[in-house]
Design a protein that fits this description.
256 residues, alpha+beta, outer membrane lipoprotein receptor (LolB), chain A, 13-stranded antiparallel β-sheet, 5 helices, disordered N terminus, disordered C terminus
Length: 256
């Protein structure tokens, strides 16, 4: 009896010392969605217009600023416009076709995107975020554990998307909000490490949006800093905004 009692007391002591319950991946995702305003509230948004400024370049002193507008519309439509050096570039996806106009690269007529660019614009069309309704989208989410990132205790989630891409998300353990993500993407035929840092969360229409994003490539310092100035939910946006314009007909040759 003494041995049995001693074993029982040790078990009780271990139970008290251990956490009452560990968070499961589904619980963490659910708390993230609740913190951001709720999954159903996000899915109910049918369109949105986001405006802001993007800073391009390493240091603030030598950076170039580019105003931008991003328009979203369900299902899977997105249009990005940004003005640089007095010229406006467009990248868009109408749910089927991805296209772009990039005048500062000498491309003044709309052209269909290459495969790597198409994957990137499809990612941007996921307005509600990768964790929202992730099972129905065919994504898989795995909890890799907890670790401290830049001084912040975080849950580390591995997201394997339906298209095979993998993202690693870091959610702070107090508020369950994503503050950093890491991924490997193919850019112009080369695999590149991409890291994003999110911050300055603000409520818009009952939903929580990050209003700043810093993007770094290849392990270097941030090369893009995006600051959101306004978010308009339920914006009136015509479907034609996302469709690839027809190229102007070639002018007829002058008569001989």
């Amino acid at each position: 009896m003494k041995l049995q009692t001693g074993v029982w007391m040790v078990c009780v002591a271990l139970a008290v010392a251990a956490p009452v319950s560990a968070e499961t991946v589904d619980e963490i995702v659910q708390k993230n969605l609740e913190a951001r305003g709720g999954e159903q509230a996000w899915l109910a948004v049918q369109s949105a217009r986001v405006t802001g400024t993007m800073r391009l370049g390493g240091s603030a002193a030598g950076a170039v600023e580019a105003p931008f507008t991003i328009e979203f519309k369900r299902p899977d439509k997105v249009r990005v416009e940004f003005t640089l050096q007095g010229m406006t570039g467009v990248q868009a996806f109408d749910g089927t076709v991805g296209w772009a106009v990039m005048p500062f690269m000498g491309k003044t007529e709309p052209e269909e995107m290459a495969e790597d660019q198409l994957k990137q614009i499809k990612d941007q069309a996921e307005f509600e975020g990768v964790l929202c309704n992730f099972k129905a989208k065919g994504h898989a989410v795995e909890l890799l554990g907890e670790e401290e990132v830049d001084g912040t205790p975080a849950y580390k989630l591995k997201v394997t998307k339906a298209n095979g891409d993998v993202d690693v998300l870091y959610l702070d353990t107090e508020y369950f909000l994503e503050f950093k993500s890491e991924a490997t993407r193919e850019i112009q035929g080369t695999e590149v490490q991409v890291a994003s840092v999110l911050g300055d969360y603000k409520e818009v229409g009952g939903l929580l949006f990050p209003h700043s994003m810093e993007i770094a490539y290849g392990g270097g310092p941030a090369q893009q800093v995006m600051t959101i100035e306004s978010v308009e939910l339920g914006a009136e946006i015509a479907d034609e905004r996302f469709a690839m314009p027809a190229k102007p007909a070639a002018s007829e040759a002058a008569p001989q």
